[in-house]
Amino acid sequence: MKPTIIQFMPLPTDxxxxxxxxxxxxxxxxxxxxxxxxxxxxxxxxxxxxGSGGKVNEALLAQMPALKVCSTVSAGYDSYDVGALTAHKAxxxxxxxxxxxxxxxxxxxxxxxxxxxxxxxxxxVKTGGWEAAPEKLPLAIDVHHKKMGIIGMGRIxxxxxxxxxxxxxxxxxxxxxxxxxxxxxxxxxQYASVEQLLAESDFVCVVLPLTDETxxxxxxxxxxxxxxxAILVNAxxxxxxxxxxxxxxxxxxxxxxAGLDVFEKEPLVGSSELTKLPNVVTLPHxxxxxxxxxxxxxxxxxxxxxxxxxxxxxxxxxxxEALKA
Length: 325
Known about the structure:
This protein is α/β, with parallel strands linked by helices. The chain has helices at 13-22, 33-38, 40-45, 58-61, 82-87, 100-116, 118-126, 129-132, 155-168, 181-187, 194-200, 220-225, 243-251, 291-309; strands at residues 4-7, 24-27, 46-51, 69-72, 91-93, 147-151, 171-175, 190-191, 203-206, 231-234, 257-260, 280-282. The strands form two sheets. A seven-stranded parallel sheet has the order 8-7-6-9-10-11-12, sandwiched between helices. Helix 1 runs parallel beside helix 14 (291-309).
């Protein structure tokens, strides 16, 4: 008899077929209590769980006593109680490798759009501003040969650094938990304290997961340390940046602008001051939103689940200590 798994997000037919070769697949719309109650027997015997966007906590795990592998189709895992999963001897897997290049593309796009005021220029042309007063063309700032500071030199940080250094001749500063030899060798990146990075960088790019240590890492004091000509780019997790402090800094022109793909609360409400400020580029958390990348993430999530339940998974495990619990 095949093990049971719960699939709580739509997957392409070929990937569902692949799962069905190994498991009894029970597809549900979400992980809400009503859904769990409706499929209580399936949840009770399920050894695997795959999807994204659901909340996996102690309450859910109490109804999934057989769970061994939880596969999130994402890089981030904010909605997963890692401690509870470990206590239940269930591993959590994610899909960071599939989205590295695409998110780096999106971050470089934010750098360019924020520096060159692309959204505002697009609006100016489409609303007749160029035709009416071509001599009033607003000027922007250059990107090439500037200094980029990257906070969080992981896969995405290195991919972004390569684009900036090799494509635009930018110097790279970085801050991470430990020196990154590949970044230093491949793009001549220089390790710096957060304080030095903020003070010297023309573009401050944040690529960090959300943890207790990174929550509001960038706040009033950090904006005070940045150049008035600097641009903040955040495509990691919204709450790493104190949004109220960012708005205050932008309104006071303590920094030149910001490019944001993530926010403290998503979706960003239309009444947010961030939507009113002309020196902010806002994107709807689309760092990985391409057809190719979203498929690759789902494919990797399926592979993680299959290998995890076979006891063969050696990477993408968030809590390997669960295997020893």
